[in-house]
From TrEMBL:
Stored Pfam families: LacI, Peripla_BP_3
Transmembrane segments: none
Organism encoding this protein: Butyricicoccus pullicaecorum
PANTHER family membership: LACI-RELATED TRANSCRIPTIONAL REPRESSOR, RIBOSE OPERON REPRESSOR
Domain of life: Bacteria
CDD domains hit by this protein: HTH_LacI, PBP1_LacI-like
Protein name: HTH lacI-type domain-containing protein
C-alpha cells in the first residue's frame, strides 16, 4: 500500500492520526503509552500504528511533558573510574528505564569535577528523578544532592544518614564475608587494595574484622578501580612484602593483581597467594580469572530501583530505602 502524504503544514499530529484511524485522540495517546500496553484491543492498536506509519507520526514527548508536568527523563550520574561492574549495570538500567517509557540521560562525574557544576547541568534538564551510583560519590557530594530540590536515589550507597532515597547492599557485611574466607583458610599476611575516595567502607570493615582476630593488614595500597591501578598496587605489595593474600575492593583490580602475581612474580594462586575481589563483574568469572568475589543481588536491586523511580516520581517527598544482603562466591583464587 502506497504511503499517503504527510498533512500540510509539517509534522502529523495525534489528531491527524485519530481522524484517519477513526478513533479518539486519547486512544492514539494510549497506543503509544507503554503503560497501556495490552489494555487496548489489538485491532485498534494495529490500525492506529498503521496510520501513524503512513503519516510518519511520532508522539510529541515535549507536549506530553507539558500536560503531565513530567519530562519522563531520568538522570543517571556515574563516576568515570567505574570499572566493568558499573558498565554492566548502566546498560541494564538504561534498558529498563526505556522499557518503562522514559529516557535516561547519563552524566559522568570525574574525581576532580566541580560537583555543583555537574549537578547544575542535571537540574537544567528538569529531570523527573536522579539516580546516583556509588562510583560517582565523594564525601562532598552528599550535601549538594540533598539540596537539589528533585527526587534523588542513591544506588549502591547507603542513604540511612540522609533525607534522600537509596538502594544499597550491606557492604560491611560483604567485607566480613571476604575476611572470614581468608582467615579460615589460614591467611595472615594480608594486603589490601582500596579506593581512596570510594566511600564504600569495604576496606575499613575488612581491616576491622582482621583486628578482631588480632591481625593487622600488612599494607593498604590505593587504586581507582582501573586495571592499571590494580597492576601498580600488586607490584608494590608483592615487591615490598611476603603476602599470602590480597583483598581488593573491586574485581577489576583483583584481576590485575592475579595477572601480576602469576606472570611477573611466578606465584601460584591460591597455593602461594589468595586473592578476593568485590562486585562479581562478568569478566572476573571468566575461566582465565575465576576470581573469588563478593556479589550483590543485582537483578533484585535493579528491580527495587525501578520501583523506587516509580514511587519518588509520584511522591517526591517520601524517601524509598532498601538494603540487601551480599553473598560470597568462592572460586579458584582462594583455598
Amino acid at each position: 500500500m502506497a504511503r499517503k502524504a504527510q498533512p500540510a503544514g509539517g509534522y502529523a499530529t495525534g489528531k491527524d492520526v485519530a481522524q484517519r484511524a477513526g478513533v479518539s485522540t486519547i486512544t492514539v495517546s494510549r497506543v503509544f503509552n507503554p503503560a497501556w500496553e495490552g489494555k487496548i484491543r489489538p485491532e485498534t492498536v494495529e490500525r492506529v500504528r498503521q496510520v501513524a506509519q503512513e503519516l510518519n507520526y511520532r508522539p510529541n514527548g515535549v507536549a506530553r511533558s507539558l500536560v503531565n508536568r513530567r519530562t519522563n527523563i531520568i538522570a543517571v550520574v556515574i563516576g568515570q573510574s567505574a570499572g566493568f561492574f558499573y558498565s554492566e549495570i548502566l546498560t541494564d538500567l538504561v534498558r529498563r528505564i526505556q522499557k518503562s517509557g522514559r529516557q535516561a540521560l547519563v552524566f559522568s562525574l570525574d574525581l576532580y569535577d566541580d560537583v555543583a557544576r555537574i549537578l547544575e547541568q542535571v537540574a537544567q534538564h528538569r529531570v523527573d528523578a536522579v539516580v546516583v551510583t556509588s562510583s560517582a560519590l565523594r564525601t562532598d557530594v552528599m550535601r549538594p544532592l540533598e539540596d537539589m530540590g528533585m527526587p534523588v536515589i542513591l544506588f549502591k550507597r547507603s542513604a540511612e544518614q540522609t533525607n534522600i532515597s537509596g538502594i544499597w547492599c550491606d557492604e560491611r557485611q560483604g567485607a566480613l564475608l571476604a575476611a572470614d574466607c581468608l582467615l579460615r583458610t589460614g591467611c595472615r599476611q594480608i594486603g589490601i587494595v582500596a579506593h581512596p575516595h570510594g566511600g564504600t567502607g569495604r576496606a575499613q570493615a575488612f581491616a576491622e574484622e582482621l583486628a578482631r582476630q588480632n591481625i593487622t593488614p600488612v599494607q593498604t595500597v590505593w587504586g581507582d578501580y582501573s586495571y592499571e591501578s590494580g597492576q601498580q598496587a600488586a607490584r608494590k605489595l608483592l615487591t615490598d612484602h611476603q603476602l599470602d593474600a590480597i583483598f581488593c575492593e573491586e574485581d577489576t583490580m583483583a584481576m590485575a593483581c592475579l595477572d601480576v602475581a602469576r606472570e611477573e612474580f611466578g606465584l601460584r594462586v591460591p597455593d602461594d597467594l589468595a586473592i578476593i575481589g568485590f562486585d562479581n563483574n562478568t569478566a572476573a568469572a571468566l575461566p582465565a580469572y575465576n576470581i573469588t568475589t563478593v556479589a550483590h543481588p543485582i537483578v533484585d536491586m535493579l528491580d527495587a530501583l525501578m520501583e523506587a523511580i516509580e514511587q519518588v516520581t509520584c511522591d517526591p517527598h517520601t524517601p524509598v530505602r532498601r538494603q540487601f544482603e551480599m553473598s560470597l562466591l568462592e572460586r579458584s583464587t582462594t583455598k
